Amino acid sequence: METNYYYQEELTVAEVSTLWTSYQNDTMLICGLRHFLANVTDEEIRSILEQFLAISEEHQKKITDIFNAENYPIPQGFTEQDVNSEAPRLFSDRIYLDLMLNVTNFSMAIYGLASSQVERDDIIQFYIEAVDETQRMYKITKDTAKAKGLYIRYPQIPKPKQIDFVTNDSFLAGWLGERRPLLGVEITALVLNTRRNALGQALVAGFAQVAQSKEVKKYFEKGRDIAAKHLEIFSSILNEEFISDGSRILTSEITNSTTAPFSDKLMMFLVTTLIASGMGQYGSSMSISPRHDLGVHYGRLIAEISKYANQGANIMINNAWMEQPPIAADRKNLTK
């Protein structure tokens, strides 16, 4: 019988890191979904949440089996202690649907990257299947949002009459002189960033309403204000060219509940995850935009949320909420 080489080797750094991170994200999502399912009223949205929960629970089981087979410690992640399913709903069904749409967007990128980095056949297959599941759920979720009139299409731009070429460096300008119109890729990024900030603003505003720690509450209030500021910046750039971003303020989708459905630890982890995703999106947006003024805007906003993320990390460390990710041996100290 042919021996599978990969099963004789220790997990690589890429495999350990991606599986560990997936476990954290899946256990967090399981907690969130259990609370959502205890409160959701729309049956179509309930079906979507149930499918997400089944997928996340299966992921957790598969990762646990892999770690057990390798005698690798199972991460703590998030447990039933981090969710209060009996707490009143904090967000509307609309927020549940928007959040799942963003989760699938985020997950498709993460799983796709993971599948290109891992090497063992079983782990490659795990992430390939995760990509397929996430793409299927993305379509189901988006189709449901469209059918309910909750999904707003991206704006349109005129069809060109012919191909053309850039002939001068004003194409790159943005601060002085006449600005060129926004490119399609720039509009797409700006619209995406307005929508993400609208959702982020609603989430942290809701979390600020129920956080147990005064320090965490203050942190979320600051995040709410940062998201509102970024939303205004992106919207104003589009409005200058009479382009609608299609976003809407979602804070009206928060209930008046002050009972925490989740632990402060879980809410902090979710917010820091969203910040990391936001920095990545801003970096991507900056990389595709040749207009200098947009690049400067993105650079400043990345610096602002990077500082905010660092404050959040310190809160988590000080409260012993940050689980140690896989890390290399400290060989400098081992040799002392």
Automatic annotation (TrEMBL):
Source organism superkingdom: Bacteria
InterPro entries per the record? DUF3231 (IPR021617), Ferritin-like (IPR012347)
Cross-referenced Pfam families, in alphabetical order? DUF3231
Q: What is this protein called?
A: DUF3231 family protein
- Species of origin: Virgibacillus kapii
